[in-house]
Backbone:
């Protein structure tokens, strides 16, 4: 019998601190990156923190690109991930850039990161160095051969990571919404709206 799912709540402050720590490790151990590419949706806030930190550390501009990713069937298995156009990455690289850092919130099965790497390497206008930075990593769930180049914390496969922006996942859990700092009037108002809908139907 598989272990029960355990929710792990990550606050905005924890996410911020983890992002700074991850960014500092990358700067300490690697050459500067020309573009930080955040994967939708969860990778975008992480990528913003990293890009901002890099610009301070490198004392020069660092490009930011958004890469849209989605699963064909909602199940993140290798081969089912669709990666959107990479025009933003090429624009931000310009004529001289060669180093791209792919950023996401969690490396779980790994199929999204693998699909993005494959597409960048296939479509790149010239040879590039492509590395990955994931805030969190679940090695026991991985279904691909790659490992993130950088990650900060390791979690078990049965742990469900709930990030600060993911309040829709907690719609039925008022205590969790309070832990995330949602104002009490919004939590109470949500209950009234739900009651109203039930009456109308």
Residues:
């Amino acid at each position: 019998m598989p272990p029960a799912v355990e929710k792990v709540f990550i606050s905005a402050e924890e996410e911020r601190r983890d992002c700074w720590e991850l960014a500092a490790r990358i700067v300490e151990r690697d050459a500067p990156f020309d573009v930080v590419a955040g994967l939708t949706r969860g990778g975008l806030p992480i990528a913003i923190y990293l890009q901002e930190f890099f610009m301070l550390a490198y004392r020069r501009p660092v490009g930011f690109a958004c890469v849209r990713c989605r699963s064909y069937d909602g199940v993140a298995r290798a081969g089912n991930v669709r990666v959107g156009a990479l025009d933003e990455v090429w624009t931000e690289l310009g004529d001289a850039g060669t180093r791209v850092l792919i950023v996401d919130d969690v490396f779980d099965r790994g199929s999204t990161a693998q699909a993005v790497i494959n597409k960048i390497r296939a479509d790149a206008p010239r040879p590039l160095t492509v590395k990955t930075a994931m805030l969190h990593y679940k090695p026991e769930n991985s279904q691909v051969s790659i490992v993130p180049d950088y990650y900060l914390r390791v979690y078990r496969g049965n742990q469900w990571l709930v990030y600060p922006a993911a309040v829709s996942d907690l719609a039925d859990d008022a205590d969790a919404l309070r832990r995330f700092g949602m104002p009490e009037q919004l939590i109470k108002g949500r209950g009234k709206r739900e009651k109203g809908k039930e009456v109308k139907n």
Observations:
- Strands lie at 6-9, 35-39, 63-67, 69-71, 81-83, 99-107, 129-137, 150-154, 159-162.
- Residues 81 and 115 are 6 Å apart (CA to CA).
- The helical segments are 12-29, 43-58, 87-93, 111-123, 174-179, 184-200.
- The chain is about 40% helix and 25% strand.
